Amino acid sequence: QGVMMPCWQNCTTTSLGKAEARRACMDALCYPKAMAADQEAARILGVPYDALHVPLVVRGAYGAFNPKLIVVLRDPIQRLHTAYWEYAHYHGKYGRTAEGFLAYVKEQVDVLNYCTNRHIGKAVHGGAPMDYAAAERHCALYLEALGNREEGLFFHADQFIRGMYAIFLEVWLRHFPRQDVLVLKGEDEYYGEANSDQAMLKVFRHLGLSVPTDEAVMKKIRKAGKPHGRSANVPAMLPEAKQILQKLYKPYNDHLA
After folding, report:
1. C-alpha 1: how far from its chain's center?
2. What is the distance between the alpha carbons of residues 72 and 187, in angstroms, rounded to a whole number?
3. Is this model's pTM higher than 0.90 or not?
């Protein structure tokens, strides 16, 4: 804010009220200056800039102690479709139809692609020029901080970016040993008693807990918590939307595997 606000005010003044000129000024000056200021703050702290995320805060809170972490990951395409119908601000804007979901997908992915393409070849954090994969990762981590079009995107592609699991798991694993992080497939938890029981056994072992031998106890565990959701009986995803999302998530799913 110490950099962005004065720069925004200067661009507003020099653009003489012309929105396009102000946006161009901010893209050329304000966003790069703000990013450079953040990078300098990271340098002073003695940490890589791309380490300034929640895992670093959690690591600091636990100190030398390594907690047992459990990560539940769901098919990112189905997770996104569920989120669209769960949160009213998405279908409220784009519509309660399969075509509305497709429009949402296209707009969000278009801006992600725009951001990625304009960062290919740029060097950040003192590193080498970015290829496509590195540029897309950079955009996923910092989207709304990179330019006017990115900042103006509806909810900053938050639900899309959350499905790029590999990017964020990689950051967590910088700060916590792999053996202390259990990764589960959400589908194993949600569908089928046998799969759920196998997932729970993994959890017990990961946490160092004794495995219940009483079937009545396991039955109570299975029924703990009430399922909820507003995404049942909604229009099916159009094939075009699924194809776009498969292309987006494939590299991250492959890396995760």
Report:
1. 23
2. 9
3. no
